[in-house]
Amino acid sequence: MATMGYTIDGDVITISVAGRVDSTNASALELEIQGALASKRYAEAVLDCDELEYISSAGLRVVLRLAKSVGRLHISNASSAVYEVFEMTGFTEMFDVSKAYRRISVEGCEVIGQGANGKVYRIDPETIVKVYLNPDSLPEIRRERELARTAFVRGVPTAIPYDVVRVGEGYGSVFELLNAKSYAKLLIAGEKTVDEISRMSVDLLKIIHGTLVDANSMPSMRDVALGWAQYLVDYLPAEQGQKLVSLVEAVPEDLHMMHGDYHIKNVMVQNGESLLIDMDTLCHGHPVFELASMYNAYVGFGLTDHSIIENFMGIPFETSEALWNTMLRLYLDDADEATVRSVEEKAIVVGLMRMMRRAIRRGGMEDEQGRAQIKACESRLCELLGRVDTLVF
After folding, report:
1. Is the pLDDT of residue 115 over 80?
2. Hey, how many other C-beta atoms are within 10 angstroms of the C-beta on 219?
3. What is the distance between the alpha carbons of residues 181 and 268, in angstroms, rounded to a whole number?
4. For a 10 Å CB count at each end of the chain, is N or C smaller?
5. How many whole angstroms separate alpha carbon 300 and alpha carbon 298?
């Protein structure tokens, strides 16, 4: 028995077929399909095979006639068995045919990492999965896979996803990381000290920042930051707003790689090797932008409420702050205190700019906590802009 349903979105019709399609029901199914197509000629048809169990040669002939009735045909969510039929009969060469994604559950799984676009879960001792917040995240997944490959082939130690899965109504990328632990977990478990984690973090960070990339292979962080600055012009005093824009504009373009969301929950250790995860924020630019992101993760987001950092990192705010200070000093090769504090202020300017814009865009003006964060960012930002005359170091 086979059943059919359809939905229409403009010039695209999606036809869902369930059950078994063979010589006993292919003609009836075709009548239903042609009835759905009767109103007009569609630019594209998607044949959704998510619930299709079997298709015979009679069913394949129905698909061929469907293809002739529309501008373009895409066959999606084919199970392994159904995909094999399409492949053996040459349909995969004639049409765009995609396999169904394996479904998994992360219920009860440990959260081992979290970024702006998703959470990373351990689903068994050998495997982790990054679950994306956006339910329509397949373009993001493809982009992140390309970014991860770019980093990997340039010598940056990176965990490469090997599968895409469905998780609830969304999608996830699967990585094989046998018994790997994040920097955060090593620190929390007492297996590494603040100084050891800081040294490991900086060693890896310098590998990333020492890697040159093609301008078009990933976004320019300078361009992104300039957008933040221009957004805040309407929310800062005129002089400070214009100075902020000028400071970002004066940062030279830099083709060295940046992670973009670098902190202790986004690096795993496997067999003594550090591996980056959560690569969707990969970009290129001057290191001040990376340091700004790190400042926010370790200190900045706790500007008005330390518990925000503590809940995210899983460590006391004082420990997180100590990580930031130690990493910054090591990154600057134990420079004198005045130099360290000068670079820190440059990073804080960028970090506060990002936080303030983020809070405004997320409706912070509408609640007391949000207004407090925005006010604190503005006050500190204006103070720093009184003496910071360049973001370059």
Report:
1. no
2. 17
3. 5
4. N
5. 7
Question: DSSP character for 366?
Answer: G
Both structure tokens of 46 = 């998607």
Q: What distance in Å separates the CA atoms of residue 176 and residue 125, rounded to the nearest whole number? A: 9
Amino acid at 175: F
Tokens found for residue 227: 């957008």
Q: Which fold has domain 2-100?
A: Transcription Regulator spoIIAA (3.30.750)
Distances (CA, A) of 361 to 184, 281, 290, 348: 29, 19, 22, 20
Q: What percentage of the chain carries pLDDT values higher than 70?
A: 100
pTM of the model: 0.79
For residue 118, pLDDT over 90 is answered with no
The topology under which CATH files domain 104-176 is Phosphorylase Kinase; domain 1 (3.30.200)
Please, which residues have CB within 8 angstroms of residue 315's CB and are 6 or more apart in sequence? 184, 187, 188
Confidence (pLDDT) at 160 = 84
Burial of residue 248 (number of CB atoms within 10 Å: 0-12, 13-18, 19+): buried
Q: Model confidence over 259-308: pLDDT tens digits?
A: 999 999 999 999 899 999 888 899 999 999 999 999 999 999 999 999 99
